[in-house]
Specification:
Elements lengths: L1 E9 L4 H10 L3 E6 L6 E7 L4 H10 L5 E8 L6 H8 L4
Antiparallel strand pairs: 1-3, 1-4, 2-3
Length: about 90
């Protein structure tokens, strides 16, 4: 499984609709409207690394109103559940 965080800058007129459109894309697990330099963050999860390009370049970047993106591919994924399980070994 490949995990990626995609930062998205949007045109002003797209802000009200883009979150739902991002969340509807195949491969986008979650989409957030955020503060700061970027307007949205999309969490992408795909079975194979080569599918990431389909989601980001053929999906997210092609949505009307997306100005630019920056993608960060995760080396490893951690969750609170995983960390608790790791530290509870042998208890």
């Amino acid at each position: 499984m490949t995990h990626a965080v995609v930062l998205i800058e949007a045109e002003r007129d797209a802000l009200s609709r883009l979150g739902g459109e991002l969340a509807d894309l195949e491969g986008v697990a979650e989409a957030y409207s955020v503060t700061g330099s970027w307007d949205f963050v999309a969490i992408v999860r795909v079975p194979a690394h080569d599918q990431l390009a389909d989601v980001v370049t053929a999906g997210i970047s092609k949505l009307p109103g997306v100005s630019r993106t920056q993608t960060m591919v995760a080396f490893a994924a951690y969750s609170k559940h995983d960390l608790e399980a790791l530290f509870s070994v042998g208890e």
